[in-house]
Amino acid sequence: MNNVEEKLWNYIDGNCTPGEQEAVSTLIAEDEAYRLKYQELLNLNISFSAMELDEPPMAFTYNVMEAIRTEHAQNPLKATINKRIIKGITLFFVITIAVLLVFTLTNIRLSGIGVPANVISAVKIPDIGKYTTKPVILGFLFFDLVLALYLFDNFLRRKNLQQQG
Amino acid sequence: MQSKLSDIELIQHTLAGDQSAYTELVKRHQRFVFTLAMRFAKGREDAEEIAQDCFIKAYRSLASFQGQSKFSTWLYSIVYTTAMTFLRKKRVDTDSIDDENVFIQVESQSSAYDVNDAENKSRSFYLNKAIEQLLPDDAAIITMFYKGELSLEEIGQALGMETNTVKVKLFRARQRLKEKLERNLKHEAKELI
Q1: Angle at Cα B80 formed by Cα B122 and Cα A49, nearest 5°?
Q2: Which among A2, A10, A51 has a CA at the least distance from the CA of B152?
Q3: Higher pLDDT residue, B106 or A146?
């Protein structure tokens, strides 16, 4: 860097320490070459400060806000739903399940006193063995496969969107 | 009403769902952002695309703005990265801008302007022409320093550079700008400087 110009620019910009500032002030006052250089840089500084900013097109703000509105409109519903609503629904189900559980537990008679033995033996558990045939199992596995592929595809799409974002 | 609010207050209003507050922010900063984009793009259409993209990106990330720096510093850092990405996409060789051939081309363009329009012979016209011939980084630093009301530290934050690096770059950019001005104006330069 040109040392003289560097010092003078620092002086003009006000980036000097008090000591440096005093030294440069003295040099400007006493040295003709310094004074001329200082005057030249000062004039340049005034010219640079007078530069004009470019004017964007008239519709610039409108275009920006329109692009933002369009982006908002394209957001999927699940992204725009207020999370408080989801939390509220979750809380409602949790409380309901908890109340039902407490109610059920308080009404269970573990000893089985008062329940006739023939009532228990009269309850018939359906035999599901006859429904688990080979086509049913194959159908079930096929359904699982399709579901797995669908979820995997969803996962890849989301990952892709995150990378683009 | 909103024009009296500070940038931070407008951001808070925007985050609370008031889009008109962001409109005010765009209006407030659009001239500078557009000018800065022009320093990189060298064409109004491209600059408009960069500036628009920058405001959209800023809107998307508004919630992550910590308020530790000025909004303008944060916004200009987005302009810089957006412009760099844009230039990379366009495969513009920024180094070639300083080539002699390009200079001759620009010079001949300015000669044409000289003949056609006496009004263009203003101080800012020649200054803008000289700025156009600078490297994008030099032009951006000079614009930020003189028109962005940013300190060297803030320019460093916006460009991701050390303050001393910005100081050296600013010094060199001013020298180059002075040379370009002198070359362009020849005799007229003496009136300016």
Answers
A1: 30
A2: A10
A3: A146
Tokens 């259409």 belong to residue:
B45
- Residue located via tokens 């900013």: A53
- Interface mutation vs chain B, best among A16, A53, A80, most B CBs within 10 Å: A53
Q: Give chain A's radius of gyration (CA, Å).
A: 41
* Mean pLDDT across chain B: 80
Asked if A57's CB is within 8 angstroms of B171's CB, the reply is: no
Question: Residue A63's closest chain B neighbor by CA?
Answer: B52
Among A41, A30, A44, CA closest to A8: A41
pTM for the full model?
Answer: 0.63
Q: Residue A165's pLDDT is what?
A: 55
The rounded percent of chain A whose pLDDT value lies above 70 is 81
Task: Write down all domains in chain B, each with its CATH number in brackets.
Answer: 2-90 (1.10.1740.10), 94-192 (1.10.10)
